[in-house]
Amino acid sequence: MITLLARGSRVKRHITTEQKTLLFEKSGAEVPDWEEPVERLVEALEQNEFELYAQRIVALDKPKAAPMAEVLLRMREEGQRLLPPGSFLPVFERCGMMPELDRWVMRRAIARLARGSRVPSLSLNISGQTVSDAGFPPAVATELSRHRVPPASIAFEVLEEDALALPNSVEQFADAARRIGCCLTIDGFGYSPVWLAPLQALKPNYVKVDRAVIRNLNSQTARGKLDRIVRAGKKLGIGVIGECVESDEALATLRAAGAGFAQGYGIHVPAPIDEALRS
Q1: Using CA atoms, how far apart are residues 259 and 103, in angstroms rounded to an integer?
Q2: Domain count within the chain
């Protein structure tokens, strides 16, 4: 049985890396017009009507090595049609049900990792609603213990905008994740003009450079921001991931700047999680 938690009416937009890619933007995803959205989402969670996908993240000094993969999600609809995240995440957010979905993903990702994987770590997106859910970190610890999965093999991605809008909640979440032994990534990093603030407050393991920077690396402004992020990362011992990499030129620029990792359709197209973790 799914139990819904009481929440405020404020809905934050939660965007996964996959939703930031050109290929996804061209997919024309539409939000379903469900008559009873809460009931439909509860049914989907109880009936496990979701599929885990994953996109590998490569180490730039060892291009064939994928030290981690980001977990992505599809929802099965009529006739087993798979909906992309842009079709159903907004509904979960409007209904205040992102913590239920994030727990569903977390439980299954940990269970999948326990079965063995060539990719040693998984990165899970966490919504602003879930960051504010004090019961989420204990649930993570329970699943890790149950499946005997090393905590350091799980990273949680928090959006930079959430880190700035919900500083107390995100800092508490980061502290809880560290106590468990999990890693923390700030996603969409460098979009805000005060991008250094989350680094100093949260001390993440990784940052993912915002797509606006990666897609404009032909400009001096974007390259300058990338250089500053890489320097800050090296000074603080934080791994820098370039996301939404779709060209050899962007990959070469990241490598030349000294970034440690890269992710995007130009490197690996998201695949069903079993396939992605076997490759």
Answers
A1: 31
A2: 1
Distance CA 176, CA 118 (A): 28
- Report in angstroms the alpha-carbon separations of 121 from 99, 118, 155, 188: 22, 9, 7, 20
Between strands 50-59 and 68-76, the pairing is antiparallel
Spatial contact of 172 and 137, defined as CB atoms under 8 Å apart = no
Task: Give me the count of residues in the chain.
Answer: 279
DSSP β-bridge partners for residue 271: 54
173: which residues sit within 8 A by CB, 6+ positions away? 126, 131, 136, 137, 156, 158
Between CA 81 and CA 88, with CA 83 as vertex, the angle to 5 degrees is 140
Structural domain including 115 reads 17-23+38-278
pLDDT at 7: 33
Count of other CB atoms within 10 angstroms of residue 208: 29
State the CATH number of the domain containing residue 141.
3.20.20.450
pTM exceeds 0.85, yes or no: yes
User: How far apart are alpha carbons 59 and 40 in whole angstroms?
Assistant: 40
Instruction: Indicate the average pLDDT of the chain.
Output: 87
Q: What number of CA atoms fall less than 13 Å from residue 91's CA on the CB side?
A: 22
* Residue 23 scores a pLDDT above 80: no
Residues 6+ apart with CB under 8 A from 13: 90, 93
